[in-house]
Design a protein that fits this description.
Blueprint: H1 2-20, E1 40-43, E2 46-49, H2 50-57, H3 75-81, H4 86-98, H5 117-128
Helix pairs in contact: 2-5, 4-5
Amino acid sequence: MKRTFLILGVASAFIATLSAFKPEPKAEPAVNITTSALPKIASANLQMTGGELLIAKSDCIGCHHKVNKLIGPSYTDVAKKYPSNEKNIAYLADKIIKGGSGVWGKIPMTPHPKISQNDAKLMAKYILSLKK
């Protein structure tokens, strides 16, 4: 009888240690977002363009919102201020990459030098497309 309890106790301890073992999560490799892979993504009732997806995958949402002012202006406010043309798309793409200050207040926009010129232009085109 003692032997049975000893075996059950050892087996329980062994199972308890196995259940506590959790393998370390594998770090996923960095993903470079390229515009060629992002023409359009569709799901149920949601369709995102390349520029919208690039914004969603970046840190832009920490300071900007589609319709509400956060730290920076809303995307719709930016669209109201700048007509959608190549000059403004290039200007806004440059602001996305280099950052800036003074246009919308005292808080500066942080630069995003890792964003390519083409991706920044897609993001700017999407923002300017929100003009109502």
